[in-house]
User: Fold this.
Amino acid sequence: MSAETAVLAPSPSHAAVAARSGRGPRVWREVRRRPLYAGATTLLLSVLLIAAFGFLLPLPEADVPSLRDRLLPPLERGQDGTLHLMGTDHLGRDITARMVSGARVTVGIAATVAAIGAVVGSLMGLVAGYRGGVTDAIVMRVADLQMAFPTLMLAIFVLYVMGAGMWQLIGLLAFLSWMSFARYARAQTLSLRAQPFVEAASSLGASELRVLLRHVLPQLLPLLVMITVLDFGTVMLAEAGLSFLGMGTQPPAASWGSMVADGREFVAAGAWWLFITPGLAVFLTVFAANMTSRWVQELMGVTRRD
Assistant:
């Protein structure tokens, strides 16, 4: 290599700096091009932050009643001068504080279930797609059999037998959410196992576990991220529906679904904020999760095969 060529050729460090410097403008271009997706992602991240750190906010106690302040409309002050931004419920509890507490329950359940389903389902799909044969047949038939059951009826029956509660709900929803991850992971693994880089790793003596975790799984991560975000919204809807029916978290713990159920009893009294506020929160969060999943699909160029 000549001296001129050596001077003109960019070093790896220069290339890395250039790549990093180009990420910022690209992100802003995508935000300007897709403002709806960007706004939805911002909303979803805000909900996650509120669920994680909402207990640090200077709010009244979510479960402490104050009968003197019952059914106050939004932006009204209580007897002690406390401003209730979203009003109070039939026991005088601050709706804003209960919304934050409910976000911790609802979002926490949805995130936990989506994470469990992603890990368990992806591993089962990887093994089924890579090994094929009897293993593939068993995993897929179990998934098909489970998907044949009416999900809501099965959930109600199981929770009736096991008893309603947060941990029972997490276990049940995780049991019902692994199939979609397994199906997509299997479909992608079937196409990847015949690729030259996978065959080369196997011929060089790499173990099956190493091939799956080091060579196949990284290729599936964009798809799995997209499905996890989408499943987060699906699980949130399921949790809200079961809590609305009284099969989820039990009092005094608040979830958005149980808050909607409590508020429906006061529709005739004109206390619209009791059910509109948590219902709107569920709708907007699920919508944001769906839009974010779509944006991830576009940004990563994900193609789903099932």
